Amino acid sequence: MARSEELQEALVLPIPQNPGLVLDGCRRLLGPNLYGPEPGAVGDCLVAGHDRDEVLALWSGHVRHFLGTLGLPQAGLRLRPFDGGGSLYFPAPVDQLFTAAYVIEAAWYLTATGLLGLSAMAPEALATELTRISAMERSPDLAALVAEVARRGIDRLLDDDALTLGHGAGSATWATDALPGSPDWARLHDIPLALVTGTNGKTTTTRLIAAMGAAAGKVSGLSSTEFVKVGDEVLDRGDYSGPAGARLLLRDKRLEVGVLEVARGGILRRGLPVTRARAAVVTNVAADHLGQYGITTVPELAEVKLSVHRALAPGGQLILNADDPMVVEAAGAPRLSPVWFSLGAGSALIRAARAAALPCGWLADGMIHLSDGAEETALVAVEEVPLTLGGAARYNIENALAAALAARALGLPDTAIRKVLTSFRSDPTDNPGRANEFAVKGARVFVDFAHNPHSIAAITSALAALPAKRRFALITHAGDRSDEDIAALTRGLFALRPDIVVAAENPKYLRGRAPGEVPALIRRACRDCGLPDDNILSATSPADGAGKIVAHLQPGDLALLLVHDERAAIFDLLRAAPSPAA
Questions:
Q1: Cα(225)–Cα(314) distance, rounded to whole angstroms?
Q2: Is the pLDDT of residue 2 over 70?
Q3: Whether 93 and 207 share a structural domain
Q4: Residue 582 confidence (pLDDT)
Q5: Coarse DSSP helix, strand, coil percentages of the chain, rounded to the nearest 5 percent
């Protein structure tokens, strides 16, 4: 049995199953995170029928007792109360992260059993078990290598069974039970690396930056919600927006420029995978996936997203959207010095940055402008950037600005940045699932992955600006959203001013709903928005819905297909449909 497997099974506690006191997860954070720059452990609790602050005080008291017994530092312990519960975090050495998680669990066990009046193991017995686990986990070689690589200014990637020093072409990886006494330090180095996060636009921005690296003649790669890719080779498909994707990408020794799409879940579940990126982008922050990992409000979500600044190397650039109030507010709390981008030269933050000779980017007179602090450059006209649909897709102007600033932070030349912006398209090759346009029967058909209010508003507002004789829309939702969420998402579709809406079932995403329940909610929301019943069609699947729209299309029409599943089948359907010249 591997050492990590032994540690995962080292202590099993009978945590009370009581709805008023719930340990809602306990996690090891392998890198910088929401709470601080160091690895550590965090637990989340849900509290009902008890005084939350009293519960958190008892929990942290038990944690401090165990940390004292184990000789682990207590100074960084943090409590983060939230509506209905709280989180407890403390930093820990890299060879004591399993132990740290067990400390949190053991402390919660004592807290819950004490409040519920249940019999429990004695604290002394628990301390003995934790001491045993600490000794089992301790690895002086691992701790020494991680400390030395930090002293040398080189990055590291951790997982349960391996340690990587450096990135890509400058990396080396060893099993944690076979670490070298003295690596060949001369061969180890980092590569230009960017992180991209946000509620929407992060996949497009990630793809743009990676394409700019390739246009500069580098072996460029990315990890994302859809795949990990190095050069032209897809290493694996799936959601790789967490640490596993970063490790798969950055351990590939061909890689010369890397871009990591970093999702909220990965940050909260395992922390950030790296410590020395040259750029970190936050595209925007809006309500999505609230209620998970103790994040219950949009300002809390913004704090999670902006924690990417802790993964920057000294001199690295944090690139933020000056037009997003949540981003601006969150950036002010830790007094960061970001590189701002905006759709207006009149933005107060852009004016301040230009006056202070700081890097920034903005839109003015139909041109994308960049400043490195010393020189201002009119980079490219928006009408020459296909992603912007002639300027209608303003969210993609934001993504272009963010990508261009990040590429500059990676040391890529403006020639490569301009080349990508003027050639990168919203098609299934360059940017699959993001406003992909098809010409079908003389109509314009767009396929998009938008799945939250912010992204649906962005795509519908952009397409509403395009001329059309009739407008069609296909929409479906996952069943684990509330009735009101489904109604709100459907209402967002009406910025497009659709003449016909297809409400499609999504059989793979029923998630507890009865068949037909979600389409019925969509139909009701469409009626509430004033669409007649005869203009609301039903479909058994996304592909079936796409087929019904194609059957109705005439020259001059416009259709938006919001597709989360069966995308490949829908692409094939649209490609096979008659072209305008047919």
A1: 28
A2: no
A3: no
A4: 45
A5: 40, 25, 35
pLDDT digits 0-9 by tens, 3-58 = 788 999 899 999 999 999 999 999 999 999 999 999 999 999 999 999 999 999 99
252 and 385 share a domain? yes
Residue 170 shares a structural domain with residue 108 = no
Burial of 18 (0-12, 13-18, 19+ CB in 10 A): middle
- In a 3-state reduction of DSSP, which class is residue 18? strand
Classify strands 443-448 and 436-440 as parallel, antiparallel or unpaired. antiparallel
Structure tokens at 256: 């010369």
pLDDT of residue 580: 59
Residue 289 pLDDT more than 70?
no
| pLDDT of the residue at 511 | 86
Same domain, 126 and 274: no
Distances (CA, A) of 233 to 220, 230, 412, 428: 10, 5, 22, 16
Q: Which residue has the tokens 């943090």?
A: 78
What are the angstrom distances between the C-alpha of 210 and each of 46, 277, 568?
Answer: 41, 14, 23
pTM of the model: 0.91
Question: What's the CATH code of the domain at 405?
Answer: 3.40.1190.10
Helix (H) or strand (E) holding 87: strand 85-91
DSSP state letter for 117: T
What DSSP string describes 521-580? HHHHHHHHTT--GGGEEEESSHHHHHHHHHHH--TT-EEEEE-SS-HHHHHHHHHHSPPT
Element (H, E) at 142: helix 140-151
| Residue 430 included in any domain | no
Give the whole-number percent of the chain exceeding pLDDT 90: 83
| CA angle centred on 406, ends 318 and 327, rounded to 5° | 40
Burial of 277 (0-12, 13-18, 19+ CB in 10 A): buried
pLDDT recorded at residue 496:
95
pLDDT band at 555 (very low <50, low <70, confident <90, very high): very high
Q: Are both 402 and 287 inside the same structural domain? A: yes
- On whether the CB atoms of residues 283 and 201 are closer than 8 A, the answer is yes
Binning pLDDT at 50, 70 and 90, where does residue 155 land? very high
Q: Crossing angle of helices 542-552/567-576, nearest 10°?
A: 20
Cα 310–chain centre separation: 15
CA dist., res. 411 & res. 420, Å (int): 15
Neighbours of 147 (CB within 10 A): 12
In this structure, are 199 and 246 located in the same domain? yes
pLDDT digits (tens, 9 = 90+) for 505-522: 988 888 889 999 999 999
- Do 130 and 266 lie in a common domain? no
The total of structural domains in the chain comes to: 4
The parent domain of residue 49 ranges over 3-138
Please give the full DSSP string across 246-285, using - where no structure is assigned: HHHHHT-TT-SEEEEE--HHHHHHH--S-S-EEEEEE---
Q: Is 179 helix (H, G, I), strand (E, B) or coil?
A: coil
